[in-house]
Amino acid sequence: MSDHIPAPAAETAATFGRFDRRRGNQSRKTVTFGDASEVTTSKVWMVFSLGGLMLIWWLVTRGPEPMIAEKTFPGQRAVWDAFTRWLREGYRRGSAWEHTWASLSRVLKGLLIGTVIGIPVGFAMGLSRRLRGIFDPIVELFRPIPPLALLPLFIMWFGIGEQSKVNLLVWASVWVMIIAARAGVLGVGGSKVHAAYSLGANRWQILRYVILPNALPEVFTGVRVALGVSWGTLVAAELLGTEVGLGATIYIASRFFRMDIVVVNILVIGVIGVAMDIVMRVLEARLIPWRGKG
Amino acid sequence: MKDLSVQNVSMVYELPRGGSVQALQDVSFDLEAGRLLTLLGPSGCGKTTLLNIIAGFLAPTGGAVTLGGDPITGPGQERGMVFQQGALFEWQNVAQNVAFGPRMNHRKKSETKDLVDGLLNTVGLTGFGDKAIYELSGGMQQRVALARCLANEPEVILMDEPLGALDALTREKMQGLILKLWKETGKTIILVTHSVEEALFLGDKLFVMAPRPGRIEQAYELPFAEVGLTSDPRKLKASAEFIDKREELLSMIWGMEEQIMGHEGGMS
To answer: Does 1.10.620.20 match the CATH number of domain A89-287?
Structure first.
């Protein structure tokens, strides 16, 4: 086949094939635009993309008189130095690990409580007309309210300490979990439930052995989304009443115009967010291998 | 073994915009234990509705169904069900799916294991117990569904187009399996199908149903299922007797389809 391809095209295909085996070498499909199975993440372009960002960053901050003033946006060298110092010495009242763990544990606590509340409520909404009627307006009304808007109220109610921060993160995750659990219950095909009844299952067994496992993929997606949303709410949650935490550090450092510390913590939050999502994907492949194959 | 009795069953669906549809009108028949009844008819003739009423998933608006004299009021394990698309539990492996019924009945694990192995053997899936459902082909999934249904020793097995989603070759093989199971277990089977050939080949009793209102148009007693196991099914399906019946049924159903089309044409 390859001798039908004109020389330059063959050369291009070979060049790209070296990096990306899906194109050129393996796939003989002529229609790839619009074919989702052909659109996988290109590793080459991932490297180009990250490299490009670094290049732009370097260009706008280089030299003695950079395009963006050092004070407003530090260069790569300054950020790297700040990062290594942050790792060694931490920032103000805590070590790097203490800041990170403070934030992580708040988010995980909030997510855990949000999940423990959200799953039964979502299930109830998926199983009962009456309960859906009761919860639907509550969910629809409160879901769009941004957590930051509630911070003053939460501080009034739960104090300036940990309680208000965790509760804010519960707020960030609970609506996602309710909706995911409800979708999981509604996603069970009628024939599965019918089959189980015909096999002698009672209501409780239907719930335990059919509806619950059938909802797991949706619930898991909910946890993944909620984790992302909570992590994104971190800075808001740590705005007041603490000096320990990645979000708190950003807020405090910004008041002292320490943009290098701010950027370091932004990047750490970003990288941890990506790492958590990767962990969740691995867990999903392990725990729910049937997903998408039904 | 229990006989099934359907007495003056009617089903009227109220439409959301007013008006109603008579899905079944005054359907009555008795089915002795151990028969294999096939239900054939154009879409909208109420055959699936009738099956769902017997399964207990739907309550008829009139009439009653009894099994061995006991009225049917809801689903129950003496009436097993096989759906078009397995309705298998994909979070469980093959053996766990088959063991679902006994497990719901709190049967001992050791007993269940032998039962499951035996059933997998019966449906031709020996050694597949550990496989995940999504690793199986459509035909194999239907074999699992059959085994799962048999595990509870139902009196009646209800099949809603069980082979409808399979390719032609697999379908023929599975027809043989259904006949084999029927012979070996002696269970009453009611099978809904769109395929005239399948209805003729599998049914030792066949109802052709008609729509508007849904009813039994013709009942047949058929010889093919009895001989279908011992003789070559391809030869049987090519025999003059089989072809005659097939053409007779086809023209009857075509007639109904045309009536429906004409009716709808007249309305618009």
So the answer is: no
